[in-house]
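Exercise 7 asks you to align residues with tokens for two separate proteins.
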Amino acid sequence: MTLAEELSDLAHIVSAMTMQAGAVRLRLKQDQTTEREMLTLIEGAGREAVEELRRMMTSAQLLEEGQLKSGGPLKP
């Protein structure tokens, strides 16, 4: 399995975790504000992680295809 494929699998896992946190958040009672805030933070962090994984996946694909040289930092 290539690095890009591994990153894609990881992005799917993080995305599923993010969706599960959102589903739990929607089932909270009105007075569970602390829990709601925590789950909102988890969702945001999950979305950011998936975006970064997708950027890394694109770079890995380009490296594997020889269209990108290694050694430089990944930029958004």
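Second protein for Exercise 7:
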Amino acid sequence: MAVSPSVRINVSGARGARGATGADNIEISQVLGVPAGSLNLGTFNGDIIPDNSSAKQALQALEDVAVRKRNEFVSIVDFGAVEGGVVDCTSALEAALTASKRIYIPAGKFRFNSPITHIFSPSATGPSDDKSSYDQIEIYGAGADASILYFPSSDGLEFQCSSFQHIVRLRDFSLTTGQAGGGTTALKITNSFAYFGEYNGHHHIDITIRGDDGYAAAYYWSTYIDLFNASNISFGKSCNLYGPVLGATDNTYGLGVRIASDPNPGTGSSGEPGWGTSYDLTGIKLRFLGCAIEIGAGVQGFSLGPGTELTVGYDGIRVIEDVTEVRQINLTGAQISVNGDSIYLASGVPSCVISGGYIGVAPGKNGIVFASNDGAANGGGTIVAGITFVALGPGAGDGVYVGTSFNPIVIDNCCFNGLGTGIELAATSSQVTVGSSNRYANCTNSVIDLGTGNIVAPANLTGNGVGFGESVTQETSKSTGVTLHSPAGRVITHDATLSSGARASFLLTNSKIGHKDVVSVSSSNGNYRVWTAGASDGERAIYIENIDGSSHSDAVTINFVVEKAAQL
């Protein structure tokens, strides 16, 4: 029969590559290092290979590959592991890790009654070009739904590193648990030495972690992935973490990824701080988790990219309270749709960029919360841009809430739809700029600014949009001061008598007013003239005069609008 140049040849018994009794498919053109389609295998029947073809050369190369694979990979079944989910395979995987750096998990369900802990041998912790400190473990399977490591009631895999060049690579298998929580951790990677510098390699995680009863069922790990002092980590686009169906109801049902670092200085020849650095979660899927991602102290260079999904669970991303040296968070094009707060920064994060993507805002919750600036170094700023914020139901909270800040924050080019408030700037906020390109639709309030030194673009402060036209009623007399924090609104005066030609004045306290702003007023009643005076931040005096020939006792509606053009 004629053989196509792209033919694949089964290499039976490539031990480790597919197990002792399996086979591995290898592309001939890849083995020989030549372009696909350039091989002439000739025409032959059965086992007869003609001398005028390149098949003999191909088979010799394949034999070499098979030998190399046998030397590099070992299968856990070669060390006594039995698939089926009944026999304890703990000692088999431990023996495989002792024998080889590269482990293959064939198709099947393998049971582990005890956690698996691999401790890398202590080695030099010098500069990144010190090859003597290099060591790597790779475990891969036949696919997430094919190769399953089942831990009925214990922790899963733990890797204890002692050098920045100790590397863990995991792909194409699943870690499952047979219980609901119980304090278990599926995967833990720690390092006694967190080097802040260049790296020769990186950890890679591309596996599925879930309950053994299925996806989003009842069983779940308390913590799915725990990273401490483990720098330079990437997550594959096939990495999926599934919590229980109850993960959508409360933040106690499973923590997806926890990242933290020891703030102590590095050791060896490095005197730099030992912060954990460089985490790329682009494409990862985290679903039905009580909290998808928790960021602790000393985490720098954290990224979420396009294709990342944090959905159906409760809390999205949380920077915990009272931590320092969290820097350079970059969230680009991610989809976050959870039932709690989508992004909650309980500590300060300088140099933070949140751009593109979609954020769903749940009832009574917020999209992005800058709750505190505690622990943030003075330097860098924050940009929130190009995000669509959409209410997930009635009673949604703020799109963006800023509590305290001293590093600048810029919010622009975002769309806010159906929210309680698009952007809320608390009284303790400062140095926040709200740009003119934001758009607000069906929001109760577009922008609420109670802070000091914030700049809110004119397009969001004037006009007849949603959130304008609020009112306050004067008490006691026409000289009683009123307070209304709104860019536009109405003051309804007291109905005290004002005789012909007489005037009264009162103070309007309004945090939206800057000392350079123009406050325009008009009266709904033609018997009165109104105007403003003063040039102080947060207040204006409003005058009302009876210009009719008779006394009147009217509750006059005075309309006002704050015009910010003079400030820019």
